[in-house]
Amino acid sequence: MYRTILITVDMAHPEQMPELIRAAIRVADETSPVVFHLLYVDETFVHHGLYTHYDKTEQKLARKDIKRKLKDQAIQLLPNEAEIKCHIREGTVHEQILEESRQLKSDVILMMARRPGLASYFVGSNAERVVRHAKCTVMVLRGSY
């Protein structure tokens, strides 16, 4: 079905990764090469007050560590022959997911979403914004967290 699969990952919820990967495998094209792109969006600098407390060296080390963790988890969960690429972006989650999807020309975006509550009724969720504005198919898995 899909060959360029963007899987959005929340590092605060590593327990979601197996479910996301299983879903990605189910929708992957079986007749053509597939690239699994894992995306983590770092929101640290969305809050400007944190700029002064975070130096560039720490930032580079943190990004490298996150990419390694993403790749290690994906390698354990995806078939051996799978092509895996890990990406990290900084900014607002929904904007960065949409931009990464546009750049990759992804066929599908897979992401988790919380069960809706009063807060998301007024503010909206990242999943809702991605679904509304994506240029490709978006699959939202409902998490129990």
TrEMBL record:
Coiled-coil segments: none
Domain UspA intervals: 1-142
Annotated SUPFAM superfamilies: Adenine nucleotide alpha hydrolases-like
InterPro entries per record: Rossmann-like_a/b/a_fold, Universal_stress_UspA, UspA
Family listed: Belongs to the universal stress protein A family.
Protein name: Universal stress protein
Organism encoding this protein: Neptunomonas phycophila
